[in-house]
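Hey,

The postdoc asked me to send both predictions to you directly instead of through the lab channel. I've kept everything plain text so nothing gets mangled by the mail client. Protein one:
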Amino acid sequence: MKVAIIYNRESMKVINLIGALNPEKYRVEAIQRITKTLKASGHQVKTFEGDKHLIENLEEFMPAVVKGERPGMALNLAYGIQGSARYTHIPGILEMIGIPYVGSGPLAHSLSLDKVVAKILFKQNGLPTPDFAVLETPEFPAPDLKYPLIVKPKSGADSFGLTVVHNESELREAATKIFDEYAEPVLAECYIEGREINIGLIGNTPEAFSPVELDFGDGPHVYTNDDKGGRSGRIVKYICPAELDEETTKKAQEIACKAFITLQCNDCARVDMRIGEDGQLYLLELNSLPSLGFRGSFVAGAQHAGLDFSALLNRLLDSAIQRYFGGATVAPTASIANKVSDNTFSFLTANRDKLEQRIGELVTYSSRM
C-alpha cells in the first residue's frame, strides 16, 4: 500500500512565522529507519515535511481514488511547526483533504497537549493524578501545594521547560523563565517521589504493553529533555517489563487504557505514571504522539510484546485501516502474493514507483503512429 510518512524536521515553510516555534523534531535516522522498514514490508513509501506544500505533494503521491479503490495511508509523525495546537495541524489537513492516517485526531491531540484540561478530565473520570495549580501570570499567588513541585509549560511536550522546585523562590524563578520563553501559563503539580513507568497503548480498543520502568541511576529521578536528546551526560535505561507485582501491573494498564479512552485517542499513545513510595499509582500525562525513535519506551514495550519494529509499524497501519475501513488490514499484500509468484510480487513492490512513472509516460504518447 502507499504510505506517506509525514514529519517535521527542517522546513519552516508557512505563510508567516508567528510566536514560538515548536522545538520538537524527529531525528533523521529515525525517519530513515521507519521508511526503510516499511519499504522492506512491501509498501510504497514517500516522506513529506508537514508544511504548507503538503497538500499538493500528497495529491501527486496519492491522487483521488476511483470508486471501490482504497486510498493509501499517512503515517503521521508531525509535531507541528508552530502554535499551541501544533499536533492538530496535520491531522486536520488530512481529514480535510480525505487522506486516512495513523494516529489520533485533532481533538485527542488538543486534549492531551493541554495538560491542565487533560488533568481535569482525568480527575473527572476517577483517574489518580497529582494535585496541581495553574499559574496564569508572573504575579501569581502562591499555590496551596506541598513542595517539591514539578513546573512545566501548560501546553509543553517532550519535557521542554520542566523543572523541579523546592520553595516559592525557586517556583517564581522557574515560572518566570517559562513565561518569558514559552509565553503561556505554567502548570505546577506535586512531585511524586518514587518510580516512573511508561505504558504504551496500541489499537482502538486499546491493548496495553507491559510497563517500562525508567532507570535513572544515581541522578535526579526526572526525565529531562537533555536526557531524551542524549545531552545530559547520563543514559536513562529502560527496564521492560518493569519489576512490578501482577496486581500493580494490571492496575497501571487499566489506568492507561482508561486515560486513552478519556482523551479519545486513536491507534497509539503512551501514558506516563509514577508509583509513589506508598505504592499509589499517579497518572502524570498522556502522549498522543508517542515516539517511534530509537530511544522510545513505546518501541521497547512493543518489543517485549513480541512486535519487532516491522511488526509494530504494520500493526499501527492495521489499526488505522480497521478504524477507517472495517475488518480489512494490510493483509491484502499477502492475498496478492498468493495469486502470483513471490518473485513477481517482490519485483512489483520494489519497482512500483518506476512502473507507475513509465505507465504515465506511455499514456501521453500520441496514438497516431
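Protein two:
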Amino acid sequence: MPGSRDFDNSEGDLPTRPSFSERLRKAIVKPADPDAVTTTEAPRSVEELQAAIKWADDKERLIGLFAAPVAAAVGFLVITALIDNDPPVGHPRHVNVSIYHDLTLVLLGMSMLMLVLALMRKRLFLGIVMALYGLGIFNLHYWGFGVPFLLFGAWYLVRAYRLQQSLKLATGDDPRGATRNGSSPPSSKRYTPPTSGRRPPRAKPDKGPTSG
C-alpha cells in the first residue's frame, strides 16, 4: 500500500521503533552505563576512624567558617529589628533595651565560638553551638534564620554519632558487630546436662543381714 510504512522486522532488515512509553522511561530513568567502573568505598581502619572523630574534615570546617560570620550578621539584624519593633514604655510587651544589648553579646559570642571551633576542627562542639544558636533565633520568632542553623547543627551531630558507631563496629565493642560480620556471639561455657522425661529409679532400701 503506497504511503504506508511497514516496520516488519521479521527478517531483521529494519530496526524496531521503540514505543512512546519506552522512550519516556529512558528519558526519566537513565540506564546504567555498562562501561562505567563501579567503585566501592573501602572500610576505614581504626586509626582513620579515630582521626575522623577527633578532627572535622575540610567540608565541615568550611561550612563552619562560612556560618560564623553569617551568624554574626543575623544576630545584628534580628536584634535591630526587635529594638525597632519594641512597643513603647508602659506597654505590657515592652522590653528594656539593655536586655537586647545583652542578647546581642550572647549571639556574637556564639558566632565567635563557631569560628574558633571551625578553625580547631571540633565537629561535635561546633554542632552543639550551631544548634543552640539556631534554637535561640528560633525562639525569637525568626524561624527563617533559625532553621538553617538547627539543620546544620543536627547534621554535625549525626555525623559525629555515625563515626562513633563505625568505630565501635571496627573495634568490636558493639555487641551487634559479631552478627553483622557473619559470626555468632560467644556461647556460654556453662554446661547444663540434658534432662529426660523419665524419673530415675528409686534405690531399694538395704534390709541388712537376716538372722536364721
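Summary for protein two, as requested: The CA atoms of residues 12 and 134 lie 66 Å apart.

Thanks,
C.
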